[in-house]
Amino acid sequence: MATAIRLRRLGAAAAIATVSGGALQLNQPSFAVNDRGGGPALATVRRRIADPNAVVPPRSVQESALIGASSANPLDVLVIGGGATGSGVALDAVTRGLRVGLVEREDFASGTSSRSTKLIHGGVRYLEKAVFNFDYGQLKLVFHALEERKQVIENAPHLCHALPCMTPCFDWFEVVYYWSGLKLYDLVAGARLLHLSRYYSAQESVELFPTLARKGKDRSLKGTVVYYDGQMNDSRLNVGLACTAALAGAAVLNHAEVVSFLKDDGSDRIIGARIRDNLTGTVTAPFPSLLLKSLTVLSAPGQEFDTYAKVVVNAAGPFCDSVRKLADKDARPMICPSSGVHIVLPDYYSPEGMGLIVPKTKDGRVVFMLPWLGRTVAGTTDSNTSITLLPEPHEDEIQFILDAICDYLNVKCLTGRFDLVDPMVEAQRIFITLTDCYNVEVDATRIIKTREAAFSAVLELIHKLGKAYITVRRTDVLSAWSGIRPLATDPSAKNTESISRDHVVCEEYPGLVTITGGKWTTYRSMAEDAVDAAIKSGKLSPSNECLTQKLRIIGGDGWDPASFTVLAQQYIRMKKSHGGKVVPGVMDTAAAKHLSHAYGTMAERVAAIAQNENLGKRLAHGYPFLEAEVAYCARNEFCESAVDFIARRCRLAFLDTDAASRALPRVIEILATEHKWDKSRKKKELEKAKQFLETFKSSKNAQFHDGKH
Ligand SMILES: Cc1cc2nc3c(=O)[nH]c(=O)nc-3n(C[C@H](O)[C@H](O)[C@H](O)COP(=O)(O)OP(=O)(O)OC[C@H]3O[C@@H](n4cnc5c(N)ncnc54)[C@H](O)[C@@H]3O)c2cc1C
């Protein structure tokens, strides 16, 4: 008996993706069968992921593992798409003891999964529908999402937290309506409740949210109801999932695209895929292991190779129809794409720990303003769209958000399009809006000839009103992005018109399981369902059941909200310059907090690089991102391009396009050292990253400065 247990432990230890001769061996872990929710299997996987010395094998090793999966020795599961869903599937499958590969066309989270609202939510709106339509299906969705909300927050505590959200009420009916609705949300959450919702008077509300308007046109604030949902750093969570899957033994490869399927001649079953390496330039391994000394450059640009698997899982999000079409060119579309735009405003628009959500504006839309990574994210309801590779926000969508938030803020709109219209007409429009609201008399007929004159006339008016108003300006938009939601119809459902907010798992072509729909919050259970379907399809033999309910992602195990204090104490806060002046060193409290949240328990590794390798400077003034992060991400998080860093590893592109642009030369310099890029590659990286930032539509002359730019 004792021997059997020991053997089992040894077997599990051998399950770690071992590196030999430059190839990743995807060994089968031998966990106890039916080991769901705990037991030795979970303990083993946890130990492996939480091992402080564990190193994620680099991209070149991942690629050789995929190349090594032949028809005679196929993977169990090949996942297409490295968004939240695909990365979740890879993690679920590998921790069940299956041999797993994942390919992502661009970067992990480069699709919808980095462009979300960043809420981990149960879906209060579905609850409203459940109640008013007596719809049990909607209620089930809410129960399910609330359960998953709790799990996501618990499993990535460094990247997720509870966020209070304020709902303003402008009449007493609204107070009663939202209070009772949100109390019901608390009730449905039960043991999964984050914090109880509660009512605040108008006075208390503006103390909590100083920019909230107490008075608007024909109405005054009666109070607010504050409830809680979760908030996350979406792309870092996504990259964390992919890296955790890699640590557990999956071969995960970004910048690798499925271009066609391999089919069995006899049965027509899909048995693998042809993959194109999309990375330009050559790849060398910065892996610090002696075992890898023999590893040479594995891929030339655009190189294609085949990889075989018993089952392929299509998790390509909005692009899952194009993947289905690779299997059957006549495949009927199942995705109904809808797009949402977000803008980022300076921090002073919302207080640090409180969001504002207006469930129904005058025209029935949702509007929200949420604090996120030290700035304010604002957005509104999605609208129909077509699928594009790099969705861009339109100017009118940005303008719509600016106009919509104006109605709820103690700030007045100067969203005038001075660049597009006659300045006098525009100035008059703003004059009239202001005088309507504040009942003051002004001369709106004076002749204004230039844009500058129009602008200063409006400022003069605001001054005349005698109140300390700030204004919502287009020039305050630091960044703006658009994302495509993969709403899905079930191709096997009788009523194909019905678009589901739930996810859909189907296998229309033997060997290809498609998983899509759902939302970020439910990625884990979507993955569980997809892996169950893959096991059935491929008659696979997992060694244990799903473990992801209680599996913390890399950096999460042992993390504590106070972990940043260790960084702040152990790393240099101040140092003497050559001239003897005392200057800030690598670490201050803001940097320590940022590293601790972004990297969890791995933050110490980043801090050590900062201190020991002279990479402790900030990448952009006013932001806590350090040079050391670029090196760390290149070594440990498959950061293969400048865009991978500024958009998905650190969030500068999303937070402040101009700051991201200014940080680029240094980011590229560090990546060039890590990946041994030559001059032409560096030039290409700069061009590509600048083009990418163009899609973020910040204001060209943003007026928000922290004084250091
Ligand atoms: C505006 C907006 C706001 C949202 N807000 C929230 C929110 O607050 N909370 C929430 O829970 N949910 C939210 N969602 C929903 C959530 O973001 C998505 O459901 C989720 O991110 C989808 O993840 P995915 O992995 O299925 O798709 P994606 O993240 O798009 O991943 C699919 C991946 O497949 C890759 N791919 C495509 N074709 C190929 C190929 N041939 N080979 C290899 N790879 C390929 C793509 O490059 C892409 O990275 C929001 C969605 C939108 C649009």
From TrEMBL:
Q: Which SUPFAM superfamilies match?
A: FAD/NAD(P)-binding domain
Q: Mind listing the GO molecular function terms for this protein?
A: glycerol-3-phosphate dehydrogenase (quinone) activity
Domain FAD dependent oxidoreductase span(s) in chain numbering: 76-523
Query: What metabolic or biological pathway is this protein involved in?
Result: Polyol metabolism; glycerol degradation via glycerol kinase pathway; glycerone phosphate from sn-glycerol 3-phosphate (anaerobic route): step 1/1
Does the keyword section mention Oxidoreductase? yes
The processes (GO biological process) annotated in the record are: glycerol-3-phosphate metabolic process
Q: Which InterPro entries match?
A: DAO_C (IPR031656), DAO_C_sf (IPR038299), FAD-dep_OxRdtase (IPR006076), FAD/NAD-bd_sf (IPR036188), G3P_DH_FAD-dep (IPR000447)
Uppermost EC category: oxidoreductase
The cross-references to Gene3D superfamilies, in alphabetical order and at most eight, read: Alpha-glycerophosphate oxidase, cap domain, D-Amino Acid Oxidase, subunit A, domain 2, FAD/NAD(P)-binding domain
Entry's localization field: Mitochondrion
Query: What are the UniProt keywords, alphabetically?
Result: FAD, Flavoprotein, Mitochondrion, Oxidoreductase, Transit peptide
What GO cellular component is one of the record's annotations?
mitochondrion
Q: State the reactions this protein catalyses.
A: a quinone + sn-glycerol 3-phosphate = dihydroxyacetone phosphate + a quinol
Start and end of every Alpha-glycerophosphate oxidase C-terminal domain?
Answer: 546-682
Name the source's superkingdom: Eukaryota
**EC number(s) recorded for this UniProt protein:** 1.1.5.3
Pfam families on file = DAO, DAO_C
What cofactor(s) does the depicted protein rely on? FAD
Q: Which family does it belong to?
A: Belongs to the FAD-dependent glycerol-3-phosphate dehydrogenase family.
Protein name as catalogued: Glycerol-3-phosphate dehydrogenase
